[in-house]
């Protein structure tokens, strides 16, 4: 599990349907990775800071995720809430040449 500088492989990109999110356990962290409709992936902390909702199950558009529990919203690029909640942690994530999701940490 110890991260090398090459990053931490999460699995195939195709594990995430386009326009949806999926939660991954990475060490002690839960990280939600979203596959955006317009292309690209985003990774943020998976637990909603409002009351612990599962953000990976939230609806996403090109920029925001909406928590399924009480509909607070967060910008997936900055982690900032647009509805006054504490921010999410944003993690650098990429897709490698083998279409694997790689978390840079
Ligand atoms: S737990 Fe996410 S909005 Fe309340």
From TrEMBL:
Q: Which InterPro entries match?
A: Rieske-like_NirD, Rieske_2Fe-2S, Rieske_2Fe-2S_sf
TM segment ranges: none
What keywords would UniProt list here?
2Fe-2S, Iron, Iron-sulfur, Metal-binding, Nitrate assimilation, Oxidoreductase
An example of a Pfam family matching this protein is: Rieske_2
User: The Rieske domain covers which part of the protein?
Assistant: 8-102
Q: MF terms per GO, please?
A: 2 iron, 2 sulfur cluster binding; metal ion binding; monooxygenase activity; nitrite reductase [NAD(P)H] activity; oxidoreductase activity, acting on paired donors, with incorporation or reduction of molecular oxygen
* SUPFAM superfamilies per the UniProt record, alphabetical: ISP domain (SSF50022)
Q: Which GO terms describe its biological process?
A: nitrate assimilation
Q: What is this protein called?
A: Rieske (2Fe-2S) protein
Q: To which species is this protein native? A: Herbidospora galbida
Lineage per the UniProt record: Bacteria, Bacillati, Actinomycetota, Actinomycetes, Streptosporangiales
